[in-house]
Design brief:
single chain; alpha/beta; 2 domains; 12% strand; elongated
Length: 346
């Protein structure tokens, strides 16, 4: 009987037959199992009363979401199981075999500073459409916007040490977006991610799953949407200020008006961009991030200014229109640098 691991299972209106078989098999190998009753309906009250005779249950008065359930469960475990060496989260819908849970446990023991993911093969014929669709979109979004290549972003089978679990408590998110935010948090906090292949199991087309690929995808991509909104607002502020200062500097007869307008507009718009990104998007601000950010702004500002000035001499184009084209390419480079260097703890 394994006493070093604690298995955390968040539950919301589970199929009692499926869950009962899972808990019975799990209990043969693992002594410590913690359940989250995430506001389940009254029809499940008798079932959870039966379970609480053997296992602790963290009960929510109403459905708060999987993310809140996992965080409350981790908090409960850290308070009540100080000697545990591994915390394993598993779903209640029968998707995870005991053998695979053991694989995650062993990998967690071997990698105490990492987050361990049990990753499924989504090319299997038994994978339901909404699961295949949801994972492919999120996987590609992660690769493009976060810079992480993860084969199964939605897996609920995860392992972590107490040290990693502590870091998970401060990550935002109440529902399914929390599990995605955890992966993003690992990137920003320099927590390695280890993937472990597991068996792909779907019972009755995964009918017990409460994941909605449309609704929950919007929640998952909220971080990316915020970044794009901030970037676009900064871009329009920059273009607007550039246009105003270009007119003013031309009237004043200032030498190199394009360069002067670029410097003034970029200084103001970049200050706005940094503070909004630091507060609302990446949520990381310190003296080094701001120094690195404005070094980046300085370099890209002069690249933009000289590129627009040089191209205007070669090709007779409107400077404002040309700046939009040049800064579009700079925007792509800027996103990668901010993601990998400016707001990266490492």
């Amino acid at each position: 009987m394994n006493k070093e691991a604690v298995i955390l299972i968040p539950c919301y209106n589970p199929d009692e037959k499926i869950m009962d078989n899972f808990i019975k098999e799990l209990g043969k190998k693992y002594q410590n199992i913690v359940l989250i009753d995430d506001g389940c309906s009254k029809e499940h009250e008798a079932y959870f009363k039966k379970l609480e005779k053997k296992y602790p249950i963290v009960k929510h008065y109403k459905n708060y979401g999987k993310g809140r359930g996992i965080k409350n469960g981790l908090n409960f475990i850290l308070n009540n199981y100080p000697d545990c060496k591994a915390i394993i989260t598993a779903d209640c819908d029968g998707q995870h075999s005991i053998k695979d849970i053991t694989k995650i446990y062993e990998e967690t023991i071997n990698n105490p500073n990492s987050l361990i993911l049990g990753t499924r093969n989504f090319e299997s014929e038994n994978v339901p459409f909404k699961s295949r669709y949801g994972n492919k979109i999120t996987r590609n979004i992660f690769k493009i916007f976060v810079g992480l290549t993860i084969s199964d972003t939605q897996t609920g089978l995860r392992g972590m040490s107490q040290k990693v679990a502590e870091a998970m408590l401060s990550i935002s998110g109440e529902r399914y977006e929390y599990e995605t935010n955890v992966l993003i948090g690992c990137k920003t906090e320099d927590i390695p991610i280890v993937e472990v292949p597991i068996k792909t199991i779907y019972i009755e087309e995964n009918r017990t799953s409460h994941f909605n690929p449309i609704k929950d995808s919007i929640m998952i991509y909220k971080l990316f949407i915020k970044y794009i909104i901030v970037a676009l607002s900064s871009f329009f502020i920059d273009i607007f200020l550039f246009s105003l200062f270009l007119i003013a500097y031309n009237k004043l007869g200032i030498l190199y008006p394009i360069i002067a307008a670029t410097v003034t507009a970029r200084t103001l718009s970049s200050a706005y961009n940094y503070f909004i990104n630091a507060k609302l998007v990446f949520k990381k601000m310190n003296k080094w991030s701001i120094v690195k950010y404005f070094i980046l702004v300085f370099v890209q500002m002069w690249v933009s200014a000289f590129a627009v000035s040089w191209i205007c001499k070669v090709i007779p184009l409107n400077p404002v229109a040309l700046k939009i084209i040049v800064d579009t390419f700079i925007f792509i480079v800027n996103f990668i640098i901010q993601r990998e260097f400016i707001f990266n703890k490492k």
